[in-house]
Amino acid sequence: MGKASGGRLLAERYQLTDRRRAGAVEARDLRSGAPVLLEAVPLPELVTPFDQAAQPGPDHASDDARGLAVRHATTAAGAVPDHPRLGQAFQVFAEDGYLWVAGEWVAGVPLAQLLDRGPMSPYRAAEVAYDVSAGLEAVHRAGLVHGNLTPATVTVCEDGAALLGGLVVAAAQEALCGGPGAIDAGASVPTSLWSPARVRARDARAVIVGATAERWAPEQLGIIGGAGQPVGPAADVWALGVLLYRSVTGVPPYPESGVDDLFDAVRAGFRPDTRPTGPLRPLLDRLLDQDPTRRPGLPQVRAVLRQLLHRAPEPLDREAQLDALPPGVAGFVELPTGTRLPVPRPGALPVQRSRASRELVDQGGPAHPHHHAGPRRRSALLGPVLVGAIILVVLVILVLAATLKG
Predict the structure, then answer these.
(1) Which residue ranges form the domains of the chain, and what is each CATH number?
(2) pLDDT single digits (tens) 218-244
(3) Model-level pTM?
(4) Which of 48, 381, 385, 406 has the fewest CB atoms in 10 Å of its CB?
(5) Sign of CA dihedral 359, 364, 365, 371
């Protein structure tokens, strides 16, 4: 492994910096000069995934836990087409006992960092969930389950829109957990019914993933309605519900002190009666249903969120929204790079509930440009120009009339 001035060098091209973002480290690609984010997954040395023998043939000669994780991560990175609400992954490689995922850097902050400063309004939380759900739909269309929707994998960009990452890291982690179904590259999470092997895989997952409520739908724990169900897209719907609840209340709906406590709380059911969730409560009840077959699909979820945004206060009291933010957050959040991130979404997007934004929502939500694209120009001077033109026409008519009379 080489060295470069200013930081460690990985894959002979990524120069690390001392800046971190939600578990990832910022780096610079020496080939392109562009900033990137590097995420790391520890790779075991001697562990083979549960109940998985090495596959025959030269392409699978090294399919122990390390090889399987790299293969799954690489497959997931290339399986989903570019999408404006998904972060891009450029390269997957193993080095120094870690699987590294090199992905794009965007100007923004992790949702986790914003929630550390206080919860969001129900309508702002609905906007974030709407953006995230678009990214999840793209993952599902590619035949994958995301499996890693958390406040740390959602970035709130400088235009206020949300960007979802973490897919490739999740694919590697699920491969390391093993279990029936994980041998298929890109499966993301096991798809078979519960068995002793899957129980052992769940125990391994508890060590790798930890007690993050978004990552443990009932079917991933093997309890109640989810006990006989495979893990599929409904697990991501559950995660969206947990994230939505966390965003609007500032706390998760289930304890995260340990997997056992999380297990007991999820088994007891969704009972957030002590935390006000406002107009989101009916949707949360459906998203956090223990039975995955009763949870709504993402198209239904997005329709409900659109209706909720229709009912948002109009006009939105921007000053009141800023006053509600914790001290030091109102207006902007300072980023390590020195850029300034507006916390509320700009007026051109549906938070302001203008007629134009309602029309965008009716058409399926705002067609956000990719985060690299420049902002659209606004016709702020259109009204004054039209009024001036009308006045000019009237003056010309009066002059002509006076001339003809003369």
Answers:
(1) 108-310 (1.10.510.10)
(2) 888 887 555 567 788 999 999 999 999
(3) 0.74
(4) 406
(5) negative
